[in-house]
Specification:
The complex is a heterodimer of chains A (443) and B (441). Chain A is mostly helical and 443 residues long. Chain A has helices at residues 60-76, 134-147, 171-190, 198-205, 213-230, 239-288, 294-360, 370-442, and strands at 92-103, 108-118, 127-133. Chain A: Belongs to the sorting nexin family.
Chain lengths: 443, 441
């Protein structure tokens, strides 16, 4: 199934399938890349092959060095991630785009095109193109949560929107939602474990997902059953996971504050814009009753109008690009907290069973019952997965916020640039007139 | 010393041409075009300080008021030469309060009715946006008023006619006794009470069309500038809000940085820049206030222009009344001479009823009328000359004023643009700094 000549990673050779570790094995040595890690060069401009976040492979130690290498590459390229910079580690590229409205007798909804390009053998074809709606993404997410309970699943944008408050079919809403779905899918595709999940495969390849919807309901029930069946209470959370929990709480709080500040700024800007518009018209009307001063006054009116336009752009950008990403991270944090809770449950179950077994033990020579050992494995595995996911999440978060805040600064700089240019050209105009007058006087 | 006061060489103090740098903030942006008059050639005038005083007023009540220090320096005085290693001679100074300025202005208004008298800065703060206090004792308000009063004195001192006024000179140089001197001029008697009544409409049959147009322009200008100042105050208010809210970023970034490892430093520094950004609006709006003051001066000027127009109306009205009166008397004479009554009069009626008066009586009346007519003709000639003289001198000043207005307001607009550019540059600076911090996260 390889496309072109195979070119493995320098760090890993070609391994026979038997030697490849199971993604969920409880060892420090995390996954190696699949056997045919072929580079797919020749990015399709149309599909936009870059995945949003850097991919982490192999052990944590080399993962961070790999990440550093990736990060350096990212820094070299201005804004967008160059598809050619780190393709050696990516063999699954997904994109969400092309929203279309569907009208049926029962309902109206939007579908998005999901394009896939891959060299993995888990996929039958190198390319896929399917249409999916939000429901389908939700299905995928639930399936991932169920089948990979020890891993952090990226969040989806909000499911419910109040009809009448938000227009579900407005260009801006669809655009914002699509970007969030794209990000979600890219994060999943970049995840060393989740990207191999068979449900993802189905999501990306099947023509028709409808059959599976029924299962979604069942699995939801199953999940809650599983939780209730646990019923063990955790005594103490290990320090490092406590730290994670605290971090998440504080971080979530801060993001909430930033959201409120940004919204407040938008509100103030909007009111400023209203006054500014009226301000411009006053200069225009004044110009009407003047002779010598007509052009200068009209010039000022023009500047004010230009600045108004620039401000409008700035505000629009804040509300369409900045705020949604911020909110998405709040959801991401909630997901992470969920995973922490599940981890707690797993640990609790283990400790509970262990205690029970110890009480029942006859003597020291009786071996530990198998189910207790299984629980221990599960707990340790969960911890390892979580730690790895946490590190990945932290570095992604750093990249994401760096990009987000830098973008915000850029937009503001842009706004002031436009305004400055307008006023500077006005001064030139006014001063030219002045020198004209002076020379005509001395003549 | 230089020649007569009539010459007016224009020395344009256009301080803004090279003020596109950051130093402009420190310069007092005086956009006044100072014409060199005899007075200004021999004397420098400044209003340098303001002080609070307490005292008893005319109704013997305790009050607090502000006094302003007027400093004058005479040029080319032998005694002014600086002794070796010494300091320059101390300027002459005296203190004046706002009401004295008002008195001076009223005097000028009455004494030179055909001149557009420069306005005083506002008595009470108007067009305030929320940060500025509307309190007359607020230091910011007092400071801006000090600048306004200095501007007023310079405007009068650079006027080709007003600068020669003795009372004005004594205002600048004689602290005590000035008040009595002004009152002694008896200017209050010259005040035409009719002008005080704003609603009085003088039905002028042949107003000078230029004055009618000027009055209309003046009213339009008054309306539009008022509107401008009101909206500008609201714009300032909103802009203040936008900047200040950004200050919250500073706090939250700082708190956030506490829980971060690698991102911490970048966030913390960026937060400081957000604080700087939020704080920068205070200076910016302070500079913008100066622009507002420049525009405001012309708002108040419109009142002075309107006043001149009304005085013209009044003098035209008086002329027309005198002419009408004369015409009536002439008609009376004609009737008396010819016996034909054209216009109904009680005298005529009673004559008809009770018989004609005697020849002697008629001749006495005719003689009286002749006298009256002669006087009337004198009056009309006088009024006509007055009116024409008023129109001539007023229009001369109006032309001067128009030129001054165009130059000053263009300068004001340039200085406004300069302030805006400075604001943009500061904004770019701060956000660039923040961006650098973010990129180092």
């Amino acid at each position: 199934m390889s496309v072109g000549a195979p070119r493995g990673l320098a760090s890993s050779g070609q391994k026979p399938i038997a030697e490849i570790l199971h993604p969920l094995s409880a060892t420090e040595e995390l996954l190696s890349p699949g056997p045919d890690v072929t580079v797919t060069i020749g990015g399709d401009k149309e599909a936009g092959l870059t995945n949003g976040t850097p991919v982490e492979m192999s052990s944590p130690a080399s993962a961070s060095s790999l990440f550093n290498r990736l990060q350096l590459d990212d820094d070299l390229e201005a804004d967008a991630r160059d598809p050619y910079s780190s393709t050696e580690t990516r063999d699954l590229f997904v994109t969400v785009d092309d929203p279309k409205k569907h009208v049926s007798t029962m309902e109206t909804y939007i579908t998005y095109r999901v394009s896939t390009k891959t060299t993995r053998i888990e996929f039958d074809l190198p390319e896929y193109c399917v249409r999916r709606r939000y429901q389908d993404f939700d299905w995928l997410r639930i399936k991932l949560e169920d089948s990979q309970p020890t891993h952090l699943i990226p969040p989806l944008p909000e499911k419910f929107v109040m009809k009448g408050v938000v227009d579900r079919f407005s260009e801006e809403f669809v655009e914002t939602r699509m970007k969030a779905l794209d990000k979600f899918l890219k994060r999943v595709a970049d995840h060393p474990v989740l990207s191999f999940n068979p449900h993802l495969n189905v999501f990306l390849t099947a023509k028709d997902l409808n059959k599976r919807q029924g299962l979604a309901l069942l699995s939801k029930v199953g999940e809650s059953v599983r939780h209730v069946a646990g019923g063990y209470k955790l005594r103490t959370r290990p320090a490092e996971f406590c730290a994670m929990g605290e971090y998440l709480d504080t971080f979530s709080q801060k993001l909430g504050t930033i959201d409120r500040i940004a919204q407040r700024i938008l509100k103030e800007q909007s009111e400023y814009l209203t006054e500014l518009r009226e301000y411009g018209t006053v200069y225009s009307s004044w110009a009407g009753s003047e002779e010598e001063l007509r052009r200068p006054l009209e010039g000022v009116a023009g500047c004010v109008t230009t600045c108004s336009g620039a401000l409008e752009d700035l505000s629009e950008n804040m509300s369409q690009d900045f705020l949604p990403v911020l909110r998405e991270y709040v959801l991401y944090i909630e997901s992470m907290k969920n995973v922490l809770r599940k981890r707690d449950q797993t640990q609790a179950e283990y400790e509970g069973r262990l205690e029970a077994a110890i009480l029942r033990k006859q003597d020291d020579r009786t071996p530990m019952p198998a189910e207790v050992e299984k629980c221990q494995d599960k707990a340790e595995c969960f911890n390892a997965d979580l730690k790895a996911d946490w590190d990945r999440w932290q570095s992604n978060k750093r990249q994401d916020f760096k990009q987000l805040l830098t973008g915000m600064a850029d937009k503001n700089i842009n706004y002031y640039d436009k305004c400055q240019a307008a006023w500077e050209s006005l001064i030139t105009l006014l001063q030219d007139k002045q020198t004209e007058d002076k020379t005509s006087e001395t003549n | 010393m230089m020649a007569d006061s009539g010459s007016s060489e224009e020395i344009a103090v256009i301080g803004n041409t090279d003020l596109i740098s950051d130093e402009s903030e420190n310069n007092l942006i005086n956009t006044m075009v100072e014409r060199e008059t005899a007075l200004l050639r021999k004397m420098e005038i400044n209003v340098t300080e303001a002080e609070k005083r307490s005292g008893k007023n005319t109704v013997n009540m305790q009050e607090t008021y502000t006094v302003y220090l007027i400093e004058t320096r005479l040029y080319n005085r032998p005694a002014e030469t600086v002794p070796e290693g010494g300091t320059p001679a101390v300027p002459d100074t005296l203190w004046r309060r706002y009401s004295e300025f008002e008195l001076l202005r009223t005097y000028l208004l009455v004494t030179y009715p055909y001149i557009i008298i420069p306005p005083l800065p506002e008595k009470r703060a108007e067009f305030v946006w929320h940060k500025l206090s509307a309190d007359n004792l607020d230091p910011d308000f007092v400071e801006r008023r000090r600048v306004g009063l200095e501007n007023f004195l310079l405007r009068v001192a650079s006027h080709p006619v007003l600068s020669n006024d003795k009372i004005f000179f004594r205002f600048l140089t004689e602290e005590k006794g000035w008040r009595e001197a002004v009152l002694e001029t008896g200017f209050q008697d010259k005040v035409d009470s009719r002008l005080k009544s704003l609603s009085a409409m003088f039905r002028v049959k042949n107003p000078d069309k230029r004055f009618t147009a000027l009055k209309q322009y003046s009213d339009e200008l008054n309306t539009v500038i008022s509107h401008l100042l009101r909206v500008r105050a609201r714009v300032a208010d909103r802009l203040y809000g936008v900047y200040k809210v950004h200050g919250n970023y500073g706090r939250v970034f700082s708190e956030w940085s506490a829980i971060e490892k690698e991102m911490g430093d970048g966030l913390q520094s960026a937060g400081h820049h957000m604080d700087t950004y939020a704080a920068s609006i205070d200076d910016i709006l302070e500079e913008e206030e100066h622009y507002a003051d420049q525009v405001k001066e012309y708002l108040f000027y419109t009142d002075a222009v309107r006043s001149v127009c009304r005085k013209h109306e009044l003098s035209q009205y008086d002329l027309e009344m005198a002419a009408q009166d004369l015409a009536y008397k002439k008609q009376q004479k004609e009737e008396l001479a010819t016996g034909i009554v054209r216009v109904f009069s009680l005298k005529g009626m009673t004559s008809k009823l009770f018989g004609q008066e005697s020849q002697e009586q008629r001749e006495i009346r005719l003689a009286a009328l002749e006298q009256s007519i002669q006087e009337g003709e004198e009056t009309v000639k006088e009024k006509n000359a007055e009116c024409q003289e008023f129109v001539r001198t007023a229009w001369e000043d109006i032309e001067r004023f128009k030129e001054q207005k165009d130059k000053d307001l263009r300068e004001a607009l340039i200085s406004y643009a300069v302030v805006q550019i400075s604001m943009c540059k500061k904004g770019i600076q701060v956000w660039s700094n923040a961006k650098e911090c973010f990129s180092k996260m």
